[in-house]
Design a protein that fits this description.
Structural class: alpha/beta
Number of helices: 12
Order of helices and strands: EEHHHEEEHHEHHEHHEHEHH
Distance between the termini: 138 Å
Shape: elongated
CATH topology of the largest domain: Rossmann fold
CATH superfamily of the largest domain: SGNH hydrolase
Number of domains: 2
């Protein structure tokens, strides 16, 4: 038996010879006395002590950092809650009955109301204080449940449509039938339309209509002027260019006096040979109206057949209107100007 550096004796036999003495990696005499061998030293060197201290301090610093982070998060949460409460208060003020309804909106940017300032944020508003009572637009009345509700508000007043004074300038197609020509029938269709003068003179050409413009139109100071002329020009073989020039001069003179001008197409005749001439004249009238931004009212179409001649029920002699023809003209004119606010 061989003692191991003064440690406990043990007998180990391997083969036939004794086992050489082996030192433990770490040996503590005190451990030896208790017959226990330690795998790690009990005492640390200076470097180990410093390393252990550093690890301890790092752990402690980490705990302090975590504590500060948690404190910052709690502060942010508190700030969010306070902001939400502020927004809810603003929304409550903008709701009907809220305290904001009794004050001016000058406190919000641009003079906006609180609801407009909040935008699309929708939150449950806190219960308004008892002093904030809703403002009623009319005398309150008690409902079935005893709750107070506003009575029906008065309907807003409707501004009456303006009235228009008009003159009708033309020839016998405007003057006849004498009992009730189309200008008088147009006046009867709407109380807002007032005929101040029927300036239809039988046999007049467009040149004659122009020559009496001041006497028969301007003297009556109308707001609206209807012009129907050209039939006698074609009957007297006056060139289309001359007729259109006379009508152009009437439009310019009327617009200079701030009148609204409406041109009427030439009506059909019984003779089919007149249809191409009338159609050409009406096409020139359309071009003239477009050039001066004047409305052209078509009275030819409702009076004529598909071939461009008079429908017999609308004329007394194949040229002038009868009562039904005059009413048809008045209806066509009113239908067009009524859509324009007249």
């Amino acid at each position: 038996m061989t003692p191991l550096d003064g440690g406990p004796e043990s007998e180990v036999e391997v083969g036939s010879g004794p086992v050489p003495p082996v030192r433990m990696a770490h040996f503590d005499p005190k451990v030896g006395q208790t017959k226990r061998l330690m795998a790690h030293p009990v005492r640390r060197g200076p470097i180990g002590a410093i390393a252990g201290l550093t690890a301890t301090e790092s752990h402690r610093a980490g705990r302090i950092t975590d504590e500060r982070s948690r404190t910052a998060m709690r502060r942010r949460d508190l700030a969010v809650v306070l902001a939400l409460l502020l927004v809810a208060t603003v929304v409550s003020a903008s709701l009907p009955g809220g305290w904001g309804n009794s004050t001016s909106s000058a406190g919000t940017p641009g003079g906006m109301t609180a609801a407009a300032f909040v935008g699309e944020v929708i939150l449950a508003a806190p219960t308004p204080s008892p002093s904030a009572t809703p403002t009623l637009s009319a005398s309150p009345s008690a409902g079935p449940s005893g709750s107070v509700r506003p009575s029906a508000t008065a309907k807003p007043s409707v501004t009456p449509a303006p009235a228009f004074r008009f003159v009708a300038l033309g020839d016998s197609l405007t003057a006849w039938p004498a009992a009730s020509p189309w200008p008088s029938r147009l006046d009867a269709k709407d109380s807002r339309l007032t005929l101040v003068h029927n300036a239809g003179v039988p046999g007049d050409t467009t040149a004659q209509m122009l020559s009496r413009f001041k006497r028969d139109v301007v003297a009556y100071n109308p707001q609206v002027l209807f012009v129907l002329g050209g039939t006698n020009d074609m009957g007297k073989s006056i060139s289309q260019a001359t007729s259109i020039a006379n009508l152009r001069a009437i439009i310019v003179a009327a617009q200079a006096k701030k009148m609204r001008v409406f041109l009427l197409t030439v009506p059909p005749q019984r003779s089919s040979s007149a249809a191409p001439v009338i159609n050409s004249f009406n096409a020139a009238l359309l071009h003239l109206a477009n050039s001066y931004r004047v409305v052209l009212i078509d009275i030819h179409a409702p009076l004529s057949t598909s071939t461009g001649v008079y429908q017999a029920q609308f004329t007394s002699d194949g040229l002038h209107f009868n009562a039904l023809g005059a009413q048809t003209v008045a209806n066509a004119i009113y239908s067009r100007i009524h859509r324009l606010g007249y």
